[in-house]
TrEMBL record:
GO cellular component: plasma membrane
Keywords: Membrane, Transmembrane, Transmembrane helix
Protein's name in the database: NfeD-like C-terminal domain-containing protein
PANTHER family tied to this protein: INNER MEMBRANE PROTEIN YBBJ
InterPro entries: Membrane_assoc_protease, NA-bd_OB-fold, NfeD-like_C
Source organism, top-level taxon: Bacteria
Pfam family, one: NfeD
Signal peptide start and end residues: none
Domain NfeD-like C-terminal: 84-139
Native species: Paenibacillus sabinae T27
Gene3D superfamilies membership: Nucleic acid-binding proteins
Compartmental location: Membrane
């Protein structure tokens, strides 16, 4: 297999992983792998240059995008959809045990969830926190 194919396959895998996690970090690694793939098309035998190019692109995107994203999030009118979920009611789809993840449906979305309590399927829960892809819930008590 030609090395540029490996770089582009890696970029594709990272892109799919990014779509599943929505962290943007894997997107920068994806773009870095694609940059390494482009370098490998121009210089197929210079593997070190390919690795350096990919690493520098990914590192540069990581370092320089952080202030831009921070400014964007602080701008007036920005609304983070993920923070709206805190305080909402959900239903346990897959039981949650202490130290293990389960699944909770909030609105029309299903989230991986953790809790300090053991929660059975079909219990009503309140979302008390949200990480990048995992929410924290507690038993809904009125």
């Amino acid at each position: 297999m030609v090395i540029w194919m490996i770089w582009f396959i890696a970029a594709g895998i990272l892109l799919v992983a990014e779509m599943l996690t929505l962290t943007f970090y894997l997107l920068w690694l994806c773009i870095g792998a694609a940059a390494a793939g482009l370098v490998s098309l121009a210089a197929p035998d210079a593997v070190l240059v390919q690795v350096l190019a990919g690493s520098l692109v990914a590192l540069g995107l990581t370092l320089f995008s952080k202030p831009v994203v921070s400014r964007f999030r602080a701008s007036r009118g920005f609304k983070d959809i993920g923070t709206d979920i805190v305080g909402r009611q959900g239903i346990v789809v897959q039981p949650i045990e202490q130290g293990r993840y389960g699944q909770v449906k909030v609105g029309g979305d299903t989230w991986s969830a953790k809790s300090a309590q053991n929660l059975a399927a079909d219990e009503k829960v309140r979302v008390i926190g949200r990480g990048s892809a995992i929410i924290e819930v507690e038993r809904w008590e009125e």
